[in-house]
Amino acid sequence: xxxxxxxxxxxxxxxxxxxxxxxxxxxxxxxxxxxxxxxxxxxxxxxxxxxxxxxxxxxxxxxxxxxxxxxxxxxxxxxxxxxxxxxxxxxxxxxxxxxxxxxxxxxxxxxxxxxxxxxxxxxxxxxxxxxxxxxxxxxxxxxxxxxxxxxxxxxxxxxxxxxxxxxxxxxxxxxxxxxxxxxxxxxxxxxxxxxxxxxxxxxxxx
Length: 206
Known about the structure:
By secondary structure, the protein is mostly beta strands. The protein has one domain: Beta Barrel (Porin). The chain has an 8-stranded antiparallel beta barrel with strand order 1-2-3-4-5-6-7-9. 13% of the residues lie in helices and 62% in strands. Helix 1 crosses helix 2.
């Protein structure tokens, strides 16, 4: 079912690229971008986790040469077997301000600053010979950093773009157990994330 929905979305987007040729781009101030790399990866069961861009969908509101962008991705999954009952969920949010600069008739460059929030929860019900206990791993992060995007405009409504970013993340990692025999762990975390242009987005303006 998921692959059918992904195929349908991708077909609709590519169809719009064919039939929307003669419109004026000045009347469009909103656009939605879909991470085509992730869509195709899910469709063909490819590993796309190393692109450095986890966001599946983005919405942008722009007026002239400035814009505000909101991006997100999320998931929930559950696995059950004889020794383990596990679930994991995550949410990635990003909001950013960007400047937009046309480069020739077909290309546009946008650059700006983004702020991020990441949430990851993994929970496992573990079975041992002597005990049954729950382990929870929780990670919460905030981040900030610059990004730049290169857009190729197929027509006034449809474009492709890729992006590069350099983000700094700070957060807290918690591992807790409902067992009195295992000590909980709490750690402050920080990391630098550099994404090169690997993910491809298809954008529809409206």
